[in-house]
Amino acid sequence: MPPQQTHRSGFAALIGRPNVGKSTLLNQLTGEKLAIVSPKPQTTRNRILGVVTRPEGQVAFLDTPGIHQAKGELNRYMVDIALQAVEEVDLVLFVVEPTGGDKPEVGPGNRFILERLQKAGKPTFLIINKIDTVPRPVLLPLIDLYRREFPFAEVVPISAKEDDGVEGLFQAVLQHLPEGEALYPEDVLTDQAEKTLVAEYVREQVLRHCRQEIPYSTAVLVDFFDESEREPPPGTPPGKLAGLIRIAASIYVERDSQKAIIIGKQGQMLKTIGTDARKAIQRLLGAHVYLSLRVRVEPRWSERPEGLKKLGYE
User: Fold this and answer.
1) Stated pTM of the model
2) Could you read off the pLDDT of 162-189 as tens digits, one per residue?
3) 3-state SS, residue 243
4) d(CA 236, CA 257)
């Protein structure tokens, strides 16, 4: 009789500077779009749980906001969320991207993170993401440089976007977690409510379609979520959209001028945001979606604790 396979489980936090690909990596690990992605920094504002369950073990990954120089209440909130996650997990995945060409450098932002990781004393992987963007020989001096800065348990080069090395990373993470039973039921993928995901999908389209300071001054709340017509009629083929969910959401900005930009000429920008968000939400919910959006002004919400609380950042 073959020996019983060891089952491992635990928490792993994705930590790093903005725009290094943490959210893309979470989505690739889980096989689902749990975290919105955009080219703009500071897209992730809260930590996002993504659970991967296999026969050999279960890993609860925490995607976190990018750690950056915190100016203003919202930015401080985001950095605090990320640093707090380091204290609560079994393993830290410090995600960086190749920089510096022939002369790689750690940089002040990553050096600050390494100092915090030194104090935390948690086992830490160095994850070098976006390896598809540089020649492989560039990675060796970068790895040597980081190894001189910190005693990493593992160094794993990957491309989250291209799904290169992601499975190997998962297996390495699992081997560094303690033996134990599953932390979540087998069918749990995240702890995010559908309404939260819907709000994020709308904010993602604001990030994609609006420029300048607009995305950083925007928050989204779902005001109405009616599932009374969600159940598909009997005989509906599997995988076919059926049933209807009615959703109303508010996009909050800080100034009237920002409101005008999001609405756009003759409402065209808001219509584009709503159309693209609705398509993504339908794929998420597996039903037809009626989505109504409106834009509201909440002056200086990102600078005031009460503003953060009102818009769900607490």
Assistant:
1) 0.92
2) 999 999 999 999 999 999 999 999 999 9
3) coil
4) 46
